Structures are given as C-alpha cells and as structure tokens.
Amino acid sequence: MTLDRRAFIGTTAAAAATLAAPMVRAQGRPRVVVVGGGCGGATAARYIAKDSEGAIDVTLIEPTRTYYTCFFSNLYIGGFQEMDDLGHGYGTLAADYGINVVHDWVTAVDRDAKSVTLASGGALPYDRLVVSPGIDFVEGSVPGWSVADQDAMPHAYKGGTQAELLKAQVMAMPEGGRYAMVAPPNPYRCPPGPYERVSMVAHALSQVNPTAKILIVDPKAKFSKQALFEEGWQKHYSGMIERIGPDFGGDKVEVDPAAMTVSIDGMVEKVDACNVIPAQKAGRIAHQAGLTEGNWAPVEPDSMRSKKDPNVWVLGDATSQGDMPKSGFSANSQAKVAAMAIRGELTGSAVFPARYSNTCWSLIATEDGVKVGASYEPTEEKIASVSSFISDTGEDAALRRQTYEESLGWYSGITSDMFG
Amino acid sequence: MARIAAHIAVILTAAALPGGAAVALEEAAPIGDAERGAELFTDCVGCHQVGPEAENRIGPHLNDIFGRRAGAIEGFPYSEGLARMGADGLTWTLETLDAYIENPRALVSRTRMAYPGMESAGDRADLLAYLRQFSASPANIPEAEPTAIVREVDLPPEVLEIAGDPAYGEYLSAECTTCHRRDGASDGIPSITNWPEEDFVVAMHAYRQEIRPHPVMQMMAKRLSDDEIAALAAYFARID
Ligand SMILES: Cc1cc2nc3c(=O)[nH]c(=O)nc-3n(C[C@H](O)[C@H](O)[C@H](O)COP(=O)(O)OP(=O)(O)OC[C@H]3O[C@@H](n4cnc5c(N)ncnc54)[C@H](O)[C@@H]3O)c2cc1C
Q1: A177 and A226 share one domain
Q2: Could you say which of A350, A374, A402 has the minimum Cβ distance to residue B88?
Q3: How far is the CA of A105 from the centre of ligand 1 (A)?
Q4: Which of A1, A145, A206, B70 has the fewest Cβ atoms within 10 Å of its own Cβ atom?
Q5: Taking 80 as the threshold, does the pLDDT of residue A58 lie above it?
Q6: Domain spanning B34-139: which superfamily?
Q7: Looking at domain B156-237, which CATH architecture does it have?
Q8: Does residue A280 contact residue A139 with C-beta atoms inside 8 Å?
Q9: Global confidence as pTM
Q10: How much of chain B exceeds pLDDT 90, in percent?
C-alpha cells in the first residue's frame, strides 16, 4: 500500500527518506501554516499531514480548544442534540497526524515576509498559508444592532455559547410570546440555516409554549428550500410562523435591543426573543491580510488559491468562488482540493483535476429531514454547478426519516473527516 | 466473475414512451412460463410463501410483491440494507425483482436473503411470471409497470474486469468520506469499506444508471468514470 502510494504521489528519494521517520522535525521540511481550525482549516491540515506522511510541517492555529460545530446547532435548539456532542477537540490531529496545534489568534499576516503574527506575540514563518477564518458580520447591516448587542439579541451564527443563549431565551419566552428572526441578505453562511432554525424554534415552542408566535423579517424575496420549509411549517406548525419579505418591508428593518423591539418599515413590534443574523463578510484576518475584494476573498476555481497571492489559499465561507454555497460540506470539499494542490507544489505529488460537491440536510420537525445538493467543477471564471438535486415536496414519512438518519451519518462522517 | 450481476435492467414502460398502442402491445407479451415458474419456486419455499394462506417466514410473504415498496411489510425484520433501499424509493417491479433475483447483493448491499442468485434470464422470467399471479394490483392491466417488458443492458464484462488502482481510489475517496466513514462505522449512512469489489462496482453502476434511487449517490456516481469506480472499489475493499 505504502509502496503504491509512493509511486503514485511520485515522492522524491529525499522525501521518501523523511517518510521513514515521519515524526522527526527535519530541518528544511516545507512549512504550511493553517489559520482557523473549522471545516476548511481542520480538513486541510489533516489531509496535508496525512497524505504527505511527514514530508510537510503542518501548523494549525485556532483560538478555541473545542470547536463547536454550527451545523447541528439548530438541532440543539430543537432539542434533538446535546451541545456537548457538538464539541470536537484537536487532540487526534496533534497526536496521530503530527500537526502542531497552536491555540492562539493570528493578528496579522505579513505576506512579503511570509509570516503570521500571533496574539501572544510570536511569529510563525510559512511556505504556504491556508486561511479559513469563517465569517464576521457587516457592522451596521441591521440598524440598531452591533456585535455588542449579541447577548440581548443573539446571532447564534458562530458555534457554541450563542446557540445556548438563544435557546435559553426561547425557552424563557412568556406563554403566547413572540420570537423574531431578522434573516440575512445573500450571500451568507448556510443558506437553509435560518429556516432550519425557525423550524427548530417552532418545534421547541410547540412542546412547551404552543401558542407562541414566530416572525421572520427577511430582506430576500426567496430562500433556500423554500417550498419544502413552507410545506413543513404548514404541516407541523400551522398558524405559528409568519414571514415578512421585502414586498412588505422585510428589507427595512431596525432593532432596539434595549427595548426589545423590531421595527419593520416604521411599524414597531414588541418581541420576547430576537435572533438577529446580520449581513456577513469574510473573517477579519482575511481582510487584514489583504486577501479580500469587497466582503470576500476571491480564489482560483481550480485550486482555491488566493487570487491575491500565489502562496496563500483561502477556504470555506470566507471565499468568493462561484456557485458553491457557504457550508461546512463545501469547506471540507474545497479543503481537499487545496490540500492536493499544496502537496503537489511542495512535494511534487500528483495533482488531479479539482472536483467539488455539497449536500445540505435540514431538519423541519421530528424525523422530517430534507436535503439539497450539487456537484461542481472549475471553469475559467468560477466554480460552476454541474448537476444538482433537491428533496421533493410531498415525500412520504419513510423517506423523510431516512433523510434525517442520513444527516446523522453525515455529521459523524464529516467530523471524523475533519478531526480524525 | 462473469456470473456477477452483469445485467442491469432498464425498463421500457408505457409511461416512458410516446404513442401508447404499439408499446402496450409489445408489453402485453407474457413474462414467461408461469407453470415452469411454479416448479422453480420450490427453491424459494424454504423461506418464502405465496398464495392465499401465505405468511411471513424467514423471508416475507410474496403476495402483492409487484408494485410494493421494498421493505414495506409492517413488523417484518428486514435487513438494514433492504430497509434503506425501500426508504430510498426502491419498488418491486419486474425490472427490480429480476435484478434482485439474479444477484441479491448487487441490488441490495448486505441483504439478508442468502440466495446466491439465478443465472438464467429465462428461469427468472418464468419464476416472475408465476409470482406475478399473486399480485392483484394491477393484475388486469398488463401494460402497467410491474409487468412491463424488461430490456436488459449488459454491463460489459470489460467494465467488471477493470483492475482498479487503489492509490487513485484513495485520492478519489476524499469525496466519499465527507459522509461515509473511513473506519467503516455506519450510523445513518452505510459503511462502504471491505466490500467485494464487484459488488461495489455493480452498485455504483446501478446508481449511475439510476436503477438505484438515491439522488446524492446518483450524482456522485454520474461524475465517475468506469476506471474511477474500479479504483474506488479497489481502495475501499482493501482499507484497514
Ligand atoms: C445555524 C447553522 C447551521 C449550519 N448547518 C450546516 C449544515 O447542516 N451543513 C453544512 O455543511 N454547513 C452548515 N453550516 C455552515 C458551516 O458551519 C460553515 O459553512 C462552516 O463552518 C465554514 O467553515 P470555515 O472553515 O469557513 O469556517 P469555520 O468553521 O467557522 O471555522 C473558522 C475558524 O477559524 C477560527 N479563526 C477565525 N479567525 C481566526 C484568526 N484570526 N486566527 C486563528 N483562528 C481564527 C475560528 O475560531 C473558527 O474556529 C451551518 C451554519 C450555521 C450558522
């Protein structure tokens, strides 16, 4: 097997010698630094380390010791998952793959000197840099709200405590109270995410507070899996959910976190819990590193290499690449293409044509799962969708249950693909 | 090797074709010799019953099997594989039953039906003609889908004989392992490790030709070449 692979990746004699002692930090090994240990970063680090078998020195920089997945955080809000089960550590990446895991923030990237600066003060040189920092919010995109208000009106759009906070606020709503969601404009992380969230909030409320109401204020005329969600809401949560689109002022929203009000085209509504999901942009470090154009970091469709710097790769939500949605599945898929390209440059291993794919499952109610997906290929100008599918409305309960169970399998699959 | 599931049946239904009359005529042809089929069924009675008194035994009863969703008899302990195919939308028709009887494991991975498969297309047609008599609906409409004529498209032997490159398969497998765990654990998504290579190849071709129903798998299979399918089969067959 190992012999096959050596022939296959075409490692040189020198690299083969390193393979014999993969854990030795040999001088002169090429260095890859990965910023961000989420879907894109953890996958890239793992695949580069795994497939280069010690020939590349991989450092992963991530501030948190436990990564809480955003995916399935809605199911936590709905009561279908425990928060503990959504947390993943970096121990296996360090122990089994020889990755240097550094828990720190990258505060600056010096692309001329090819080095990153850490919040703790140190600096790390790199030969190739991978940046997968996820998203940050566009200040001022929801008038009245800033990140300082995230305790009163949580976004719950980054992993961990925000989802816990939002769930606590939903559960504390007075009988017959009102939950509002300010939905984000395109493009944003996880297109069906806000609507799966509404489904899960509705599910939780229907158990403990069935006369409560949900108001979605949405700047978008249409949204992902709309027919499927609307059918499910009608079926499971009839009369509970109201959505105001841009034709009725959904794009003219303002919030007051102190007063707990939402104003829609001047009409002020009192609410009991409010989930503000602002407009999004690439994580801050991508901007600081000068990798962005507008809100996102443009990349080459065939490799995920930054269009701004041939030594830098950008992955996942932070990128603009074409047709792929900003999802964990996409980031994982892109990371494997990037890992292959980077290994190719640093060790001469074979580089095959890029292929990307994505599938996003959503849960609407107990055992009522749906999915949407597509496969993608690079063209000259973007990553383009080549074929796609979506669940049908009116599917029977057995298929919906199966789709839900499949999503559990996917969770287990992707998290072990990221964290080993 | 040659015996393995080389036929993937593709059906010609009345609905799928324009201009009904000629098609209906063609499809009204008998499936096979039901009397001979009754004799062949003696191979099956150890596990299956059919007819007015039929009950579930080791295998489910076969009354009304045509047109029934796979894995649909309440309370029968189907294998995980069969239940999954049923949930994915597999329905028993002349086409799917023919493929299943020919090689159970090729159509349904990990089925509990411990039957090695019936090689002769003629025997299968006769057996199915016999079973067809116990499916009421839509017995009186011979051109309806369950009795439509089967057209078999052979998976050319060259395709089954491709020696897959496991190293290339390892590279390609990154696309599979977002969902299917490399360690073989199955938890809502089936394990694809350590399968016999032929089963893997036939299964992927069945997705590619949309005989197996799952949309994600159809999409994945359609972008794979014959060599790539063989490479994946080789890699996953040898994985530790
Ligand atoms: C509610 C919700 C539901 C979702 N459901 C799904 C789903 O079902 N399926 C799906 O595929 N996707 C889903 N997603 C989307 C998915 O979570 C993201 O698309 C995915 O996490 C993107 O990966 P990433 O690597 O770009 O960013 P992230 O996974 O967010 O990782 C970024 C990491 O970088 C770190 N970081 C940031 N800046 C720095 C810095 N300066 N220095 C060091 N580290 C830094 C952060 O701490 C973070 O850990 C969902 C998202 C949400 C919000």
Answers
A1: yes
A2: A402
A3: 15
A4: A1
A5: yes
A6: Cytochrome c-like domain (1.10.760.10)
A7: Orthogonal Bundle (1.10)
A8: no
A9: 0.80
A10: 43
